[in-house]
Amino acid sequence: MTTATSSRALEHPTRDQIRLEAVLHALADPVRLRIVRDMARERAELSCSYFDLPVTKSTTTHHFRVLREGGVIRQTYRGTAKLNALREDDLEALFPGLLATVLAAADAQVTREDATA
C-alpha cells in the first residue's frame, strides 16, 4: 500500500498493487456494488453523503474502505468532505472490460428484479 503523508491522506494501492481478488471481493457485496453503480452512472467525484444506503454510518464507512483498499475507488478530502471517484482507468488497464461487464450484469439483474416485483 502507498503510505499516507498526513492524517488526512488515505492509503490507496498503487495500480501495480491492485489484485483481481480484492477487486472481485469489493464488487461482490450488494451495497458496494450499488455504490460503484451510482459512481459509474454519475461519472463524477461524489461525497459519501451523496449515497443513501440501507446501512449504518459505520457500515457505510466499512464499505468505502473495502472499495478503496481493493483499488476500486480513490478517496480524497476536499475541505471536510471525503470525495470518492472510480479508478476506471486503473481497472481498465489491469483488467480490460471487467468493470464494464460487472456493471452491465448488475444493471441486467436490477432490470430482471424490477420486472418481477
TrEMBL record:
Q: Which UniProt keywords apply?
A: DNA-binding, Transcription, Transcription regulation
Please give the Gene3D superfamilies that the UniProt record associates with this protein: Winged helix-like DNA-binding domain superfamily/Winged helix DNA-binding domain
Q: Which InterPro entries match?
A: ArsR-like_HTH (IPR011991), HTH_ArsR_DNA-bd_dom (IPR001845), HTH_MetalResp_TranReg (IPR051081), WH-like_DNA-bd_sf (IPR036388), WH_DNA-bd_sf (IPR036390)
Q: Does the keyword Hydrolase apply?
A: no
Where the record annotates domain HTH arsR-type, the positions are 12-106
Look up keyword Transcription and say if it applies: yes
Question: Which PROSITE patterns does this one have?
Answer: HTH_ARSR_2
Mind telling me which Pfam families this protein's record contains?
HTH_20 (PF12840)
Q: Which PANTHER family match?
A: TRANSCRIPTIONAL REGULATOR, ARSR FAMILY, TRANSCRIPTIONAL REGULATORY PROTEIN
Q: What is this protein called?
A: ArsR/SmtB family transcription factor
The source organism is Streptomyces flavochromogenes
Q: Lineage of the native species?
A: Bacteria, Bacillati, Actinomycetota, Actinomycetes, Kitasatosporales
